[in-house]
Structure formats: structure tokens, C-alpha cells
TrEMBL record:
GO biological process, one term: sterol biosynthetic process
Keywords, sorted A to Z: ATP-binding, Cytoplasm, Kinase, Lipid biosynthesis, Lipid metabolism, Magnesium, Nucleotide-binding, Steroid biosynthesis, Steroid metabolism, Sterol biosynthesis, Sterol metabolism, Transferase
Xref: PANTHER family: MEVALONATE KINASE
Chief location category: cytoplasm
Highest taxon listed in the record's lineage: Eukaryota
Protein's recorded name: Mevalonate kinase
GO cellular component: cytosol
Catalytic activity line of the entry: (R)-mevalonate + ATP = (R)-5-phosphomevalonate + ADP + H(+)
Organism: Adineta ricciae (Rotifer)
Start and end residues of each GHMP kinase C-terminal domain: 235-296
Domain GHMP kinase N-terminal: 87-168
Pfam families: GHMP_kinases_C (PF08544), GHMP_kinases_N (PF00288)
InterPro entries, alphabetized: GHMP_kinase_C_dom, GHMP_kinase_C_sf, GHMP_kinase_N_dom, GHMP_knse_ATP-bd_CS, Mev_gal_kin, Ribosomal_Su5_D2-typ_SF, Ribsml_uS5_D2-typ_fold_subgr
Length: 298
């Protein structure tokens, strides 16, 4: 018998509070209209000649293809395959004994740009197995396991990325609470520096800063949270708050020369720009007010 499930999940923009959220502070985050789509098809093996689960895995956007035996896991697999094996093991007892899994992934979310591609992947992966085994989606359960998958990718993330990818909309998020907000920004530009970033590396960099200079570190983290609260309470002041949040991120050490240059050029035109996500490359966000896309590009 053949069974197919398809799920999709959105990318995200952190409006304010990245990095501080790792240390329990609040972050403001919103989902975006770019999604990752995953299809899981299971061909259940009825003749039982092979007591195995085989996996064919295709990432269409990067043209990566893998075929593996899921029972023979090793640490030398690409991280996406490790993630599949991890999730498969969580659901193994609810699956039939043998068969072939075909997973196909297509994504509108650029990879490694800070727009939540890995979280959308983790959420879709858990969602597919959930739907296959239980015939429905329980978002709280999916989010919990997707967080563990995110830990494989990023070490000890805050959980903000998987949570927004699971629930969508906009959230005021901390490690202990999430509040849905009716938060909307118009004229928001996403600027891709084209420089790949590593969330794990940037989170490690901030950890060193906070551990080596705890007093200064704590003050910056608190100031970032104050910025976030002000963004929610006074959305009309968001341009100044972007600027303040960016200064604090720079102080934490997650900006780079290229980002500083973009921020400076746009600021000369009264446009405040900030990192969104981990920094060190990836994407920036800017409120463009009345400027057109062409003017911003110029
Ligand atoms: C990455 O999208 C956001 C960070 O705050 C890391 C995290 O929250 O886990 C940099």
C-alpha cells in the first residue's frame, strides 16, 4: 500500500530580540509568505522479503539526492539525513515493519540567510511523520520535537524559529511563553547580504562575549528586551528602535563590515536597518517608508 502526506511551513523574520532570546529575553518574530514544502510517500513492503526501511531523499533546490537504509545510521551523514534518521527513530514503533520512504523537499526560503529555512525543514519533517502515523497534526507536539531537531542543526537554540514555523502569524516569544500578536509592518524590505552565515557560530560568539564580560553582556541583553517591548507598545517608533537594536547587536559582535556599510548607507537616507536572525551575514530588514525598491537598490 502507498501512503502520501504533504505539509508546508513558513519562513520567519525576527523583528527584534535575536540572540537575547537565547538568554530568556523576549523576541518579536513574524512568519513570512515564503514556505518550505515536504512530501513523504511510503511504499509499504507487503512481501516482507527485506526487513528494512529504505529512504530516498531529494532536496530539489540544491539538487541533493540520497538513498540510505534507515536502520544503518552513521554519524557521517549530511545533517539533513541525520535529522531524518532522528525523527524516524522517534516514530519507528508506530510504523509498519518494512517499506520505502520517499521524501521530497522544495523551498521558497533561501538557505542560510536567517529566514528560518532549517526550522521550516525541521517542522515539516516532524509534521510529515506525525500526519503519517496519527492522521492529524498536533502543533504543540510537533513544535516540541522540531526543537530537538533544531538542536541537531544549531546546538542550543532558543526555540523561537521552530515555534514561529509551527504556529505562524506573529509572536512575542520567550523560552517560557508565547503570545500571538496582531503585528503588521508595511514597507519592510528584506536585504540579503548574500553572505552565508552560521547560526551555531554566531550564537557561540555571543556566548563567549556574555561569559567573558557578564555585566556588560547582561546589560545589552536587557536593553535588547527593552527595545522589543517598545516595538510592541510603540510600533510608530520602530525606525528608531531598529537602529537601537542594531547598535546593540553590533556591540554583541554579530555585525560584520559589509553589514555596517549597508546600515550606514541606508541611514544617510534616514532608513534604519537591522540584522534579522543570527547575523555575521544573512539578511537585514529595513523600514523603507516611501522609498521604492529601485531607490533602495540604488
Ligand atoms: C536565529 O534565527 C535566532 C537566534 O536568536 C538564535 C536562537 O534564537 O536560537 C540568533
Amino acid at each position: 500500500m502507498k501512503k502520501t502526506v504533504i505539509v508546508s511551513s513558513p519562513g520567519k523574520l525576527i523583528i527584534g530580540g535575536e540572540h537575547a532570546v537565547v538568554y530568556g529575553r523576549r523576541a518579536l518574530v513574524t512568519s513570512i509568505g515564503m514556505r518550505l514544502y515536504m512530501q513523504l510517500t511510503v511504499d509499504e513492503n507487503t512481501d516482507k522479503q527485506t526487513e528494512k526501511h529504505l529512504l530516498n531523499f531529494i532536496l530539489h533546490d540544491t539538487n541533493q539526492r540520497y538513498s540510505i537504509d534507515l536502520s544503518e545510521s552513521s554519524d557521517t551523514q549530511p545533517i539533513e539525513i541525520e535529522a531524518v534518521i532522528y525523527v524516524y527513530n522517534q516514530f519507528k514503533s508506530s510504523l509498519s515493519e518494512t517499506g520505502v520512504f520517499n521524501i521530497e523537499v522544495r523551498s521558497e526560503i533561501p538557505i542560510g540567510a536567517g529566514l528560518g529555512s532549517s526550522a521550516a525543514f525541521s517542522v515539516c519533517l516532524v509534521g510529515c511523520f506525525h500526519l503519517l502515523c496519527y492522521g492529524k497534526l498536533c502543533l504543540e507536539d510537533i513544535n516540541e520535537l522540531a526543537y530537538k531537531v533544531e538542536c541537531l542543526f544549531h546546538g542550543t537554540p532558543s526555540g523561537v524559529d521552530n515555534t514561529i514555523s509551527t504556529f505562524g502569524q506573529s509572536l512575542l516569544y520567550s523560552r517560557v511563553s508565547k503570545k500571538h500578536l496582531n503585528f503588521r509592518l508595511s514597507n519592510l524590505a528584506i536585504i540579503d547580504t548574500g553572505i552565508p552565515k552560521s547560526t551555531k557560530r554566531m550564537v557561540g560568539l555571543v556566548r563567549s562575549f556574555v561569559e567573558n564580560t557578564p555585566e556588560e553582556g547582561e546589560k545589552i541583553l536587557n536593553d535588547i528586551e527593552t527595545c522589543v517591548d517598545a516595538m510592541v507598545e510603540h510600533p510608530d517608533e520602530i525606525n528608531e528602535l531598529f537602529q537601537r537594536n542594531q547598535q546593540l547587536l553590533k556591540h554583541l559582535g554579530v555585525s560584520i563590515v559589509e553589514i555596517d556599510q549597508i546600515v550606514e548607507i541606508l541611514l544617510k537616507n534616514s532608513i534604519s536597518t537591522k540584522i534579522t536572525g543570527a547575523g555575521g551575514g544573512g539578511c537585514l530588514i529595513a523600514l523603507t517608508s516611501t522609498f521604492t525598491k529601485e531607490q533602495i537598490l540604488e
